[in-house]
Protein backbone atom coordinates (compact mmCIF):
# COMPACT_ATOMS: atom_id res chain seq x y z
CA UNK A 1 0.00 0.00 0.00
CA UNK A 2 1.30 3.47 -0.89
CA UNK A 3 0.34 5.86 1.90
CA UNK A 4 0.55 9.63 2.25
CA UNK A 5 1.25 10.69 5.85
CA UNK A 6 0.54 14.18 7.18
CA UNK A 7 1.67 15.64 10.50
CA UNK A 8 0.36 19.01 11.72
CA UNK A 9 -0.14 18.62 15.49
CA UNK A 10 2.13 21.47 16.54
CA UNK A 11 4.64 23.67 14.69
CA UNK A 12 6.00 21.35 12.00
CA UNK A 13 4.19 20.57 8.77
CA UNK A 14 5.38 17.11 7.78
CA UNK A 15 4.41 15.19 4.66
CA UNK A 16 5.76 11.80 3.59
CA UNK A 17 4.94 8.89 1.32
CA UNK A 18 5.58 5.31 2.45
CA UNK A 19 5.43 2.23 0.25
CA UNK A 20 4.36 -0.73 2.40
CA UNK A 21 5.10 -3.41 -0.22
CA UNK A 22 8.66 -2.21 -0.71
CA UNK A 23 8.95 -1.17 2.98
CA UNK A 24 10.46 2.04 1.77
CA UNK A 25 10.02 5.73 2.36
CA UNK A 26 9.48 7.32 -1.07
CA UNK A 27 9.36 10.97 -0.01
CA UNK A 28 9.82 13.09 3.07
CA UNK A 29 9.07 16.83 3.21
CA UNK A 30 9.18 19.02 6.29
CA UNK A 31 8.46 22.66 6.90
CA UNK A 32 9.30 24.04 10.33
CA UNK A 33 7.47 27.10 11.65
CA UNK A 34 10.24 27.89 14.14
CA UNK A 35 11.02 31.29 12.63
CA UNK A 36 7.34 32.25 12.78
CA UNK A 37 6.95 31.48 16.50
CA UNK A 38 10.45 32.47 17.67
CA UNK A 39 9.56 36.12 18.25
CA UNK A 40 6.79 35.03 20.67
CA UNK A 41 9.04 32.58 22.56
CA UNK A 42 6.63 29.68 21.98
CA UNK A 43 4.01 28.27 19.64
CA UNK A 44 1.04 30.58 18.93
CA UNK A 45 -1.78 28.13 18.06
CA UNK A 46 -3.70 30.34 15.60
CA UNK A 47 -0.56 31.25 13.68
CA UNK A 48 0.40 27.58 13.58
CA UNK A 49 -2.94 26.57 12.01
CA UNK A 50 -2.75 29.31 9.40
CA UNK A 51 0.80 28.40 8.43
CA UNK A 52 -0.07 24.69 8.12
CA UNK A 53 -2.86 25.68 5.69
CA UNK A 54 -0.40 27.75 3.66
CA UNK A 55 2.29 25.07 3.43
CA UNK A 56 0.50 21.73 3.36
CA UNK A 57 -0.65 21.67 -0.31
CA UNK A 58 2.83 22.77 -1.45
CA UNK A 59 4.51 20.03 0.57
CA UNK A 60 2.12 17.38 -0.76
CA UNK A 61 2.98 18.45 -4.33
CA UNK A 62 6.69 18.34 -3.51
CA UNK A 63 6.35 14.87 -1.93
CA UNK A 64 4.48 13.49 -4.95
CA UNK A 65 7.24 14.83 -7.19
CA UNK A 66 10.01 13.49 -4.93
CA UNK A 67 8.40 10.02 -4.92
CA UNK A 68 8.11 10.08 -8.72
CA UNK A 69 4.44 9.02 -8.59
CA UNK A 70 1.07 10.56 -9.46
CA UNK A 71 -1.52 11.61 -6.90
CA UNK A 72 -3.73 8.79 -8.24
CA UNK A 73 -1.10 6.22 -7.18
CA UNK A 74 -1.85 6.93 -3.50
CA UNK A 75 -3.82 4.11 -1.85
CA UNK A 76 -4.42 5.63 1.58
CA UNK A 77 -3.90 8.77 3.64
CA UNK A 78 -2.89 8.97 7.30
CA UNK A 79 -2.95 12.09 9.42
CA UNK A 80 -2.21 12.89 13.07
CA UNK A 81 -5.50 12.87 14.94
CA UNK A 82 -4.09 13.80 18.36
CA UNK A 83 -2.75 14.60 20.83
CA UNK A 84 -1.99 18.16 19.71
CA UNK A 85 -3.35 21.65 19.10
CA UNK A 86 -6.91 21.21 17.83
CA UNK A 87 -6.73 23.99 15.21
CA UNK A 88 -3.44 22.67 13.88
CA UNK A 89 -4.69 19.06 13.82
CA UNK A 90 -7.75 20.22 11.93
CA UNK A 91 -5.63 21.28 8.94
CA UNK A 92 -4.21 17.84 8.15
CA UNK A 93 -7.50 16.15 9.04
CA UNK A 94 -9.67 18.20 6.70
CA UNK A 95 -7.07 18.08 3.94
CA UNK A 96 -6.90 14.29 4.26
CA UNK A 97 -10.67 14.01 4.23
CA UNK A 98 -10.98 16.13 1.09
CA UNK A 99 -8.21 14.36 -0.78
CA UNK A 100 -9.46 10.96 0.36
CA UNK A 101 -12.92 11.71 -1.02
CA UNK A 102 -11.51 13.04 -4.29
CA UNK A 103 -9.28 10.00 -4.83
CA UNK A 104 -11.80 7.56 -3.31
CA UNK A 105 -9.21 6.03 -0.96
CA UNK A 106 -9.36 5.30 2.80
CA UNK A 107 -8.07 7.76 5.36
CA UNK A 108 -6.99 7.12 8.95
CA UNK A 109 -6.33 9.40 11.93
CA UNK A 110 -3.37 8.09 13.97
CA UNK A 111 -1.98 8.80 17.43
CA UNK A 112 1.00 11.16 17.40
CA UNK A 113 2.78 9.42 20.29
CA UNK A 114 2.31 6.00 18.71
CA UNK A 115 3.80 7.48 15.54
CA UNK A 116 6.86 8.66 17.54
CA UNK A 117 7.05 5.22 19.11
CA UNK A 118 7.03 3.49 15.72
CA UNK A 119 9.41 5.93 13.95
CA UNK A 120 12.31 3.57 14.73
CA UNK A 121 10.80 1.05 12.27
CA UNK A 122 11.85 3.36 9.44
CA UNK A 123 15.48 2.51 10.25
CA UNK A 124 17.52 -0.44 9.06
CA UNK A 125 18.30 -1.35 12.67
CA UNK A 126 14.84 -2.30 13.98
CA UNK A 127 14.14 -3.68 17.46
CA UNK A 128 12.42 -7.00 17.97
CA UNK A 129 9.39 -7.21 20.24
CA UNK A 130 9.09 -6.87 23.17
CA UNK A 131 10.88 -3.59 23.77
CA UNK A 132 10.72 -0.69 26.16
CA UNK A 133 10.34 2.76 24.62
CA UNK A 134 11.40 5.96 26.28
CA UNK A 135 9.10 8.56 24.71
CA UNK A 136 10.52 12.01 25.31
CA UNK A 137 9.00 15.04 23.63
CA UNK A 138 7.86 18.59 24.38
CA UNK A 139 4.59 17.33 25.84
CA UNK A 140 5.32 13.81 27.08
CA UNK A 141 7.83 11.79 29.11
CA UNK A 142 6.78 8.17 29.21
CA UNK A 143 8.14 4.66 29.50
CA UNK A 144 6.06 2.24 27.45
CA UNK A 145 6.34 -1.53 27.20
CA UNK A 146 5.68 -2.52 23.59
CA UNK A 147 4.74 -6.21 23.53
CA UNK A 148 3.75 -6.19 19.89
CA UNK A 149 2.43 -3.79 17.27
CA UNK A 150 -0.48 -1.93 18.93
CA UNK A 151 0.01 -3.66 22.30
CA UNK A 152 1.28 -1.02 24.71
CA UNK A 153 1.54 -0.80 28.48
CA UNK A 154 2.29 2.56 30.05
CA UNK A 155 4.93 1.81 32.70
CA UNK A 156 5.38 5.33 34.01
CA UNK A 157 5.23 8.98 33.00
CA UNK A 158 5.94 12.48 34.25
CA UNK A 159 3.72 13.68 37.05
CA UNK A 160 4.24 17.30 35.97
CA UNK A 161 6.38 18.83 33.17
CA UNK A 162 7.66 16.86 30.21
CA UNK A 163 11.45 16.65 29.90
CA UNK A 164 11.38 18.67 26.63
CA UNK A 165 9.49 21.37 28.50
CA UNK A 166 12.19 21.42 31.22
CA UNK A 167 14.84 21.87 28.49
CA UNK A 168 12.80 24.60 26.76
CA UNK A 169 11.86 26.60 29.86
CA UNK A 170 15.39 26.59 31.28
CA UNK A 171 16.79 27.63 27.90
CA UNK A 172 14.29 30.49 27.82
CA UNK A 173 15.48 31.75 31.22
CA UNK A 174 19.02 31.78 29.79
CA UNK A 175 17.73 33.91 26.93
CA UNK A 176 18.29 31.19 24.30
CA UNK A 177 16.05 31.31 21.21
CA UNK A 178 12.96 29.10 20.87
CA UNK A 179 12.84 26.10 20.79
CA UNK A 180 15.39 26.00 23.57
CA UNK A 181 16.10 22.24 23.88
CA UNK A 182 18.58 21.91 21.02
CA UNK A 183 20.08 25.35 21.84
CA UNK A 184 20.68 24.39 25.46
CA UNK A 185 22.24 21.11 24.30
CA UNK A 186 24.57 23.05 21.99
CA UNK A 187 25.60 25.39 24.82
CA UNK A 188 26.23 22.38 27.08
CA UNK A 189 28.83 21.02 24.64
CA UNK A 190 31.19 23.84 25.67
CA UNK A 191 30.47 23.47 29.38
CA UNK A 192 31.95 21.62 32.35
CA UNK A 193 29.19 19.47 33.94
CA UNK A 194 31.03 19.14 37.26
CA UNK A 195 30.91 22.79 38.42
CA UNK A 196 27.21 22.71 39.29
CA UNK A 197 25.05 19.93 40.64
CA UNK A 198 21.37 19.35 39.94
CA UNK A 199 19.22 16.71 41.66
CA UNK A 200 18.11 13.52 39.87
CA UNK A 201 14.38 13.78 40.62
CA UNK A 202 12.46 10.68 41.81
CA UNK A 203 15.49 8.38 41.59
CA UNK A 204 15.44 7.72 45.32
CA UNK A 205 11.87 6.41 45.04
CA UNK A 206 10.83 3.11 43.51
CA UNK A 207 8.68 3.19 40.39
CA UNK A 208 8.92 4.61 36.91
CA UNK A 209 7.36 8.05 37.35
CA UNK A 210 9.22 11.24 36.48
CA UNK A 211 9.01 14.81 37.79
CA UNK A 212 10.79 17.76 36.23
CA UNK A 213 9.25 20.84 37.83
CA UNK A 214 11.60 20.91 40.85
CA UNK A 215 14.80 20.71 38.81
CA UNK A 216 13.50 23.53 36.63
CA UNK A 217 13.04 25.75 39.69
CA UNK A 218 16.55 24.86 40.87
CA UNK A 219 17.83 25.87 37.43
CA UNK A 220 16.02 29.20 37.67
CA UNK A 221 17.59 29.97 41.07
CA UNK A 222 21.05 28.92 39.83
CA UNK A 223 20.79 31.09 36.71
CA UNK A 224 19.64 34.10 38.76
CA UNK A 225 22.82 33.94 40.83
CA UNK A 226 25.16 33.34 37.86
CA UNK A 227 26.64 35.43 35.07
CA UNK A 228 26.36 34.63 31.37
CA UNK A 229 29.88 33.20 31.41
CA UNK A 230 28.59 30.43 33.70
CA UNK A 231 25.74 29.43 31.38
CA UNK A 232 27.61 26.70 29.45
CA UNK A 233 28.57 24.98 32.74
CA UNK A 234 25.01 25.29 34.07
CA UNK A 235 23.63 23.93 30.78
CA UNK A 236 26.05 20.98 30.89
CA UNK A 237 25.18 20.09 34.50
CA UNK A 238 21.45 20.54 33.89
CA UNK A 239 21.52 18.37 30.75
CA UNK A 240 23.53 15.72 32.56
CA UNK A 241 20.98 15.57 35.40
CA UNK A 242 18.05 15.21 32.96
CA UNK A 243 19.82 12.61 30.82
CA UNK A 244 20.98 10.66 33.87
CA UNK A 245 17.42 10.58 35.25
CA UNK A 246 15.99 9.37 31.92
CA UNK A 247 18.65 6.68 31.65
CA UNK A 248 18.34 5.38 35.22
CA UNK A 249 14.56 5.05 34.85
CA UNK A 250 14.93 3.35 31.47
CA UNK A 251 17.34 0.81 32.96
CA UNK A 252 14.85 0.23 35.76
CA UNK A 253 12.10 -0.37 33.18
CA UNK A 254 14.27 -2.92 31.33
CA UNK A 255 14.98 -4.72 34.58
CA UNK A 256 11.35 -4.75 35.67
CA UNK A 257 9.98 -6.00 32.33
CA UNK A 258 12.87 -8.31 31.46
CA UNK A 259 13.04 -6.69 28.01
CA UNK A 260 16.49 -6.56 26.39
CA UNK A 261 15.74 -3.83 23.86
CA UNK A 262 15.37 -0.13 24.53
CA UNK A 263 14.04 2.37 21.98
CA UNK A 264 14.24 6.13 22.42
CA UNK A 265 11.84 8.36 20.46
CA UNK A 266 10.46 11.89 20.41
CA UNK A 267 12.21 15.24 20.07
CA UNK A 268 14.51 14.87 23.09
CA UNK A 269 15.66 11.57 21.55
CA UNK A 270 17.71 13.77 19.20
CA UNK A 271 19.86 14.84 22.17
CA UNK A 272 23.45 13.78 21.46
CA UNK A 273 24.44 13.32 25.10
CA UNK A 274 21.46 11.02 25.74
CA UNK A 275 22.30 8.99 22.62
CA UNK A 276 26.01 8.60 23.35
CA UNK A 277 25.50 7.75 27.05
CA UNK A 278 22.90 5.11 26.17
CA UNK A 279 25.15 3.59 23.51
CA UNK A 280 28.03 3.39 25.97
CA UNK A 281 25.85 1.84 28.70
CA UNK A 282 24.24 -0.65 26.34
CA UNK A 283 27.67 -2.12 25.60
CA UNK A 284 28.61 -2.11 29.25
CA UNK A 285 25.36 -3.64 30.52
CA UNK A 286 24.45 -5.89 27.60
CA UNK A 287 21.19 -4.49 26.23
CA UNK A 288 20.40 -3.17 22.77
CA UNK A 289 19.49 0.45 22.16
CA UNK A 290 17.71 1.78 19.05
CA UNK A 291 17.01 5.33 17.92
CA UNK A 292 15.28 6.79 14.90
CA UNK A 293 17.64 9.14 13.02
CA UNK A 294 17.49 12.60 14.65
CA UNK A 295 15.18 14.11 11.99
CA UNK A 296 12.65 11.34 12.71
CA UNK A 297 12.89 11.91 16.49
CA UNK A 298 11.39 15.39 16.17
CA UNK A 299 7.96 15.81 14.55
CA UNK A 300 7.77 14.57 10.94
CA UNK A 301 5.41 13.08 8.38
CA UNK A 302 7.43 9.90 7.82
CA UNK A 303 6.40 8.36 11.13
CA UNK A 304 2.74 9.13 10.35
CA UNK A 305 3.00 7.60 6.87
CA UNK A 306 4.64 4.47 8.29
CA UNK A 307 2.15 3.97 11.13
CA UNK A 308 -0.77 4.84 8.82
CA UNK A 309 0.41 2.24 6.30
CA UNK A 310 0.62 -0.44 9.00
CA UNK A 311 -2.88 0.29 10.29
CA UNK A 312 -4.57 0.96 6.91
CA UNK A 313 -3.10 -2.32 5.60
CA UNK A 314 -4.82 -4.07 8.51
CA UNK A 315 -8.14 -2.69 7.25
CA UNK A 316 -8.53 0.19 9.70
CA UNK A 317 -9.96 3.48 8.49
CA UNK A 318 -11.66 6.62 9.83
CA UNK A 319 -15.26 7.21 8.80
CA UNK A 320 -15.38 10.71 10.22
CA UNK A 321 -12.83 13.20 11.42
CA UNK A 322 -13.07 13.76 15.17
CA UNK A 323 -9.94 15.12 16.74
CA UNK A 324 -8.56 14.46 20.22
CA UNK A 325 -6.51 17.11 22.04
CA UNK A 326 -5.66 14.44 24.64
CA UNK A 327 -5.30 10.79 23.65
CA UNK A 328 -3.30 8.54 26.03
CA UNK A 329 -1.37 5.80 24.27
CA UNK A 330 -2.82 3.09 26.51
CA UNK A 331 -6.38 4.09 25.53
CA UNK A 332 -6.03 3.88 21.76
CA UNK A 333 -9.22 1.99 20.99
CA UNK A 334 -11.44 2.98 23.96
CA UNK A 335 -11.18 6.70 23.41
CA UNK A 336 -11.09 6.46 19.64
CA UNK A 337 -14.40 4.60 19.50
CA UNK A 338 -16.17 6.82 22.07
CA UNK A 339 -15.27 10.19 20.56
O1 LIG B 1 8.63 15.37 19.43
P1 LIG B 1 8.79 16.83 19.29
O2 LIG B 1 9.40 17.38 18.02
O3 LIG B 1 7.41 17.56 19.45
C1 LIG B 1 6.46 17.15 20.39
O4 LIG B 1 5.71 16.19 20.09
O5 LIG B 1 6.48 17.75 21.50
O6 LIG B 1 9.64 17.32 20.55
C2 LIG B 1 10.01 18.64 20.72
C3 LIG B 1 10.84 18.75 21.99
C4 LIG B 1 11.11 20.21 22.38
O7 LIG B 1 10.91 20.36 23.77
C5 LIG B 1 12.57 20.38 21.98
O8 LIG B 1 13.23 21.38 22.72
C6 LIG B 1 13.12 19.01 22.29
O9 LIG B 1 12.12 18.12 21.81
N1 LIG B 1 14.40 18.74 21.61
C7 LIG B 1 15.57 18.57 22.26
C8 LIG B 1 16.57 18.37 21.27
N2 LIG B 1 15.96 18.43 20.03
C9 LIG B 1 14.63 18.66 20.28
N3 LIG B 1 15.87 18.55 23.57
C10 LIG B 1 17.15 18.35 23.92
N4 LIG B 1 18.15 18.16 23.03
C11 LIG B 1 17.92 18.16 21.71
N5 LIG B 1 18.90 17.97 20.84
ZN1 LIG C 1 5.97 15.04 18.65
From TrEMBL:
Cofactor: Fe(2+)
Entry annotated with the keyword Metal-binding: yes
Biological processes, Gene Ontology terms: tRNA threonylcarbamoyladenosine modification
Enzyme Commission no: 2.3.1.234
Main location, first listed in the record: cytoplasm
Binding residue positions for substrate: 135-139, 168, 181, 271
Record SUPFAM superfamilies: Actin-like ATPase domain
Matching InterPro entries: ATPase_NBD, Gcp-like_dom, KAE1/TsaD, TsaD
Entry protein name: tRNA N6-adenosine threonylcarbamoyltransferase
